[in-house]
Structure formats: structure tokens, C-alpha cells
């Protein structure tokens, strides 16, 4: 054979095993599995049982022995640039071959170096930068490496570095994905805790029943739900519990819309979106509506009675047909959005008055929740107040942690026309203006609805009221209210006998009746 043929044969002799070797690496993405495969195949190229892989640790400016077989399998080494054979290959970026290794490296006192007879180390290059090295050695006296084996191992290392970088990127992406999943899970848990009934706590049988019902609606997503209750009772929190359930892992969108806040002429485009050029002033690309944003999740329509009558029929069609048109559009759009509505007015009265469609009312009320007012679940008032007190104290860095007994009694006796929202606002106001360990009637006395109650409570606490032993409050004194409550207290003291009460107070019975009638009208 001529010289050219011999070169082709020599090239073929190492390309074929190199090709077969690389086939076993390209589909490996797990780092440990890949490194093991690289070192075993590298050793197999020259039939040795002694090999190692070092990888660069850029942040520490050193190279670390990652994996070894044979002589290297039980040792852990690190080297810096220029140190020993490995450090020189790292520094120079070129392979090294030593067939009398033990003489050259004798200054490195390691237990097995004296048995190494020949060694070669090649760099693993990626874009011209050394990311690691592969080393092989012989311990037999009559075995040596040649230039062809160095070239073959160098080619192998170059290709292996590509696979290794790919695996490193896969590992980094996988770790990032795991971190994102953990962060998403934590965020969803926090979101569900912040949005569901659990945010304010469940302290009564009524709310426990509502929570149980909300969980059932969560599991039956085809049902529309109507939530009724006074302003401030927590209807939106119930809606969010219906959406999120108690699993706290639901990533489907929850989109809310207050029907009272949208002008009538914008309602349809706000709900269904619009196509380009649908009307004067429309965006050129059109715009998505709330149904688009809530795709796969829940659309919460608060104050549903404010929905214009002409749109009520369209909402009914969406609920029944699961499809709608955008404003100015001709294409039907399928939807899987669940509708949850809320109202603080009597819908039956609106139906009878003709301002709310009867068929829509019954379609919405397939699922129904009634949230009773706070005055009907008094056992919740103190636990909720305590919860809000601790919450705001933590946020504002205040010392508040408890409510004394007299203040608790006063909170319970109040009717709370604004329900939970009013209770929350009262506690927030007190925490904002004061910084004490215990909330007392003194703090409540500064709030309008409680001022007169505190004065009467203080009157009851006094064993005797004398002209020379009372102290006027520093702010305005509501004398008329005070007199009314004194008369009321005197009547209660005499078991409802107004004649005895008038005699006790030294006033006419007519005055007593007048004051009591005035109180009854308030």
C-alpha cells in the first residue's frame, strides 16, 4: 500500500472506535452517569484500567479530581495551573505524553505515583477554553503511549467536552426548573392562604359550613355559583376559596370584576374583549376581555345586579353555551371559564322589579352560598379582632397582642353594620395610632360608634357618681347622649319601672318617656 493508503488506514483505526464510543455518550444527560461513561470509554480506547477526569472550578481557580478508576478511584486531589502534569496541561491547553512518568513526577509524593510507568493527559476544550482534562496511565513496564493514541484521546476529549457542557447546561436548567417549581409552589400556597377563607380564619359553625360548601363547589367546576350577603361579610374571600380550594396548588387564573365600577357603555368590551376597528378609539390590535384572561379559571363578578339588562342575556348564553363573540367579531370563541357572582342586595326583589332577568337568576343560583352578617355570628368577633390585631401589630411593629375582657364585651355588643370590613378597619386604626400591649376600652372610646358606650360603661363602673368626683374627657363631651343613657340605665336599674326611675333621677315621668322614645328612634 502507498503512503496515502496507510494514513487512511491509520485514521480509520481510531475513528471507528471513537465514533462508536461517542454514540454511547451523546444521549446521556445525567452528570454522574455521563462522567462514568466518559472515563470508561476513554480507558477502553487504549485498553488501560487506570484513568481520571479533572474539571475546572473557575470560582476557586483550581481543578478538582472528579472521577477516577484504577489508581485514582480512592483519592481526592486539587491542582492549580502549572502544578504537575495536570496543571501544565490546564495552563498550556495542550496534551502531554510521558513514557517515564515516575522520574518526571517523583517530587509529588503520593503512594501510587511510583508504580506509574507511562501517562498521557489531554485537555477538554470548549470554545478554546480548558474546562477539564482526561488522563490515562500504564503501570506495566513494557507498555507505552504513542502519538496516535494521544491524538485519538485528544479528539475524544474534544467531543466529550461538548457532551459534558450540554449535560452541565441540562443540569443547570433542571436545577433552575426545580427552584422555579418550588418557588411557584410556595407562591401558590401563599396566594391561596392570602385569598381564601383561611386568610381570616374560621371561628363559627356557620363559616365551617360555608367552607365545606366552597370545597364542594371547587371540585365541581361546571357549576356557576351565586354568593349573597351584606357588604363586608367576606363574599370575595368565599369566591376565592371556591376557586382555590384548600389544596393551595391551583395555578388557574382568578379574575375579578366589580360590575358597579364599569360604565354601561364599556361593559361588553370589558367582558368579552373587542376586535380591531370594532369602534372609534379601539386599539388597532383589538383587546382581550375578562373571559380571555380567566381562561381555564374563574371569573368573579361582584355586585352582579349592576350588570346592564341587555348584557344579562349575553352572560346567560355564555354560561349555557360556553361560547361568546368579541365586540365586532364574527368568530365564536369557546370558553371553559367558571362564573362566580356576588351581590349584597335581594336579587328576588330585583327580579320582581324587572331589573334582573329571572332566567339568569336561577341559572346563577345552581350553586348558592349565603354569608350571614357578623352580628349573626358573634362568636367570631373576638377571634377575628384578635387575629387582625396581631396581623397589624406585626406589620407595623407594634406591641399589641391581646384584647382585655371589657373591650371584648364592647366589641361583641356592637352591631357591626359594616361587618368584617368594619371590624378590620377599626382594629387597623387603633394599631396605627397606639402602641400598647393590650387593647382596652380606652382605645375604643376614641372611635365614634363606641364613644357613648364607653361613657355608659364607665358610669356603671363607678359605685357612686358625685358632683365633685367626675372628670370630663379632653375632647368634646356628648351631653345629650350621656343624659339619654343615664335615663336608660336608671330604667334598667329599676327593672323597667319608669315611675321609679323618674323618682330616682328627680325628673318627671314624661321626661323619661320622651328620652326613651328618642332613643328608640335612633
Topology:
Blueprint: H1 3-23, H2 31-45, E1 51-57, E2 62-69, E3 78-79, H3 84-92, E4 96-98, H4 101-104, E5 118-126, E6 129-138, H5 147-195, H6 205-219, E7 225-229, H7 235-244, E8 254-258, H8 267-272, H9 290-293, E9 298-302, H10 309-321, E10 323-324, E11 333-334, E12 338-343, H11 347-353, H12 358-364, E13 367-371, H13 381-396, E14 402-403, H14 405-413, H15 419-433, E15 438-439, H16 441-444, H17 448-461, H18 479-493, H19 498-505, H20 509-521
Helix pairs in contact: 1-5, 2-5, 6-7, 13-15, 17-18, 18-19, 19-20
Explain this structure to me?
The protein is an alpha/beta fold and 522 residues long. It folds into three domains: 3-172, GAF domain (Beta-Lactamase, 2-Layer Sandwich); 209-372, Rossmann fold, CATH 3.40.50; 377-521, Helicase, Ruva Protein, domain 3, CATH 1.10.8. It contains 20 helices and 15 strands. The chain has helices at residues 3-23, 31-45, 84-92, 101-104, 147-195, 205-219, 235-244, 267-272, 290-293, 309-321, 347-353, 358-364, 381-396, 405-413, 419-433, 441-444, 448-461, 479-493, 498-505, 509-521, and strands spanning 51-57, 62-69, 78-79, 96-98, 118-126, 129-138, 225-229, 254-258, 298-302, 323-324, 333-334, 338-343, 367-371, 402-403, 438-439. The strands form four sheets. The chain has a six-stranded antiparallel beta sheet with strand order 3-2-1-6-5-4. Strands 8-9-12-7-13 form a five-stranded parallel beta sheet. Helix 2 (31-45) runs antiparallel to helix 5 (147-195) and helix 19 (498-505) crosses helix 20.
Amino acid at each position: 500500500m502507498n503512503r496515502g493508503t496507510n494514513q487512511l488506514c491509520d485514521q480509520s483505526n481510531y475513528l471507528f472506535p471513537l465514533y462508536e464510543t461517542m454514540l454511547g455518550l451523546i444521549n446521556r444527560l445525567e452528570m454522574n452517569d455521563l462522567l462514568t461513561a466518559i472515563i470508561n470509554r476513554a480507558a477502553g480506547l487504549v485498553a488501560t484500567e487506570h484513568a481520571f477526569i479533572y474539571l475546572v472550578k473557575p470560582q476557586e481557580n483550581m481543578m478538582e479530581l472528579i472521577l477516577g478508576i484504577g489508581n485514582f478511584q480512592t483519592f481526592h486531589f486539587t491542582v492549580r495551573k502549572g502544578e504537575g502534569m495536570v496543571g501544565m496541561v490546564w495552563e498550556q491547553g495542550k496534551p502531554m505524553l510521558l513514557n517515564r512518568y515516575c522520574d518526571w513526577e517523583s517530587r509529588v509524593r503520593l503512594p501510587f505515583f511510583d508504580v506509574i510507568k507511562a501517562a498521557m493527559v489531554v485537555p477538554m476544550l470548549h470554545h478554546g477554553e480548558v474546562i477539564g482534562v482526561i488522563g490515562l496511565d500504564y503501570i506495566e513496564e513494557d507498555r507505552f503511549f504513542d502519538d496516535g493514541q494521544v491524538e485519538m484521546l485528544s479528539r475524544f476529549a474534544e467531543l466529550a467536552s461538548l457532551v459534558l457542557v450540554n449535560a452541565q447546561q441540562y443540569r443547570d436548567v433542571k436545577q433552575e426548573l426545580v427552584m422555579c417549581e418550588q418557588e411557584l409552589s410556595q407562591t401558590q400556597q401563599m396566594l391561596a392562604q392570602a385569598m381564601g377563607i383561611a386568610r381570616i380564619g374560621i371561628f363559627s359553625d356557620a363559616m365551617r359550613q360555608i367552607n365545606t360548601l366552597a370545597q364542594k363547589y371547587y371540585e365541581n367546576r361546571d357549576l356557576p355559583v351565586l354568593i349573597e350577603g351584606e357588604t363586608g361579610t367576606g363574599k370575595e374571600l368565599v369566591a376565592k376559596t371556591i376557586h382555590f380550594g384548600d389544596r393551595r396548588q391551583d395555578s388557574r387564573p382568578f379574575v375579578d370584576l366589580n360590575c358597579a365600577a364599569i360604565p354601561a357603555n364599556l361593559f361588553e368590551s370589558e367582558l368579552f374583549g373587542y376586535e380591531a376597528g370594532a369602534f372609534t378609539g379601539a386599539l388597532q390590535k383589538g383587546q382581550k376581555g375578562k373571559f380571555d384572561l380567566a381562561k381555564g379559571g374563574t371569573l368573579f363578578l361582584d355586585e352582579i345586579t349592576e350588570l346592564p339588562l341587555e348584557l344579562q342575556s349575553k352572560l346567560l348564553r355564555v354560561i349555557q353555551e360556553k361560547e361568546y363573540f368579541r365586540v365586532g367579531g364574527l368568530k365564536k370563541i369557546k370558553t371553559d371559564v367558571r362564573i362566580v357572582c356576588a351581590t349584597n342586595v335581594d336579587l328576588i326583589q330585583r327580579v320582581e322589579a324587572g331589573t334582573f332577568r329571572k332566567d339568569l337568576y336561577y341559572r346563577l343560583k345552581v350553586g348558592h352560598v349565603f354569608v350571614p352578617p357578623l352580628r349573626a355570628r358573634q362568636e367570631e368577633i373576638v377571634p377575628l379582632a384578635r387575629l387582625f390585631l396581631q396581623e397589624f401589630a406585626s406589620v407595623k411593629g407594634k406591641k399589641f397582642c391581646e384584647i382585655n375582657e371589657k373591650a371584648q364585651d364592647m366589641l361583641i355588643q356592637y352591631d357591626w353594620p359594616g361587618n368584617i370590613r368594619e371590624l378590620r378597619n377599626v382594629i387597623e386604626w387603633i394599631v396605627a395610632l397606639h402602641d400598647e400591649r393590650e387593647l382596652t376600652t380606652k382605645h375604643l372610646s376614641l372611635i365614634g360608634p363606641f364613644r357613648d358606650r364607653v361613657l355608659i360603661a364607665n358610669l356603671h363602673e363607678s359605685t357612686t357618681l358625685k358632683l365633685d368626683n367626675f372628670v370630663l374627657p379632653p375632647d368634646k363631651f356628648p351631653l345629650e347622649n350621656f343624659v339619654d343613657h343615664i335615663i336608660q340605665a336608671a330604667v334598667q336599674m329599676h327593672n323597667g319601672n319608669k315611675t321609679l326611675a323618674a323618682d330616682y333621677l328627680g325628673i318627671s315621668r314624661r321626661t323619661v318617656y320622651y328620652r326613651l322614645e328618642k332613643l328608640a328612634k335612633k
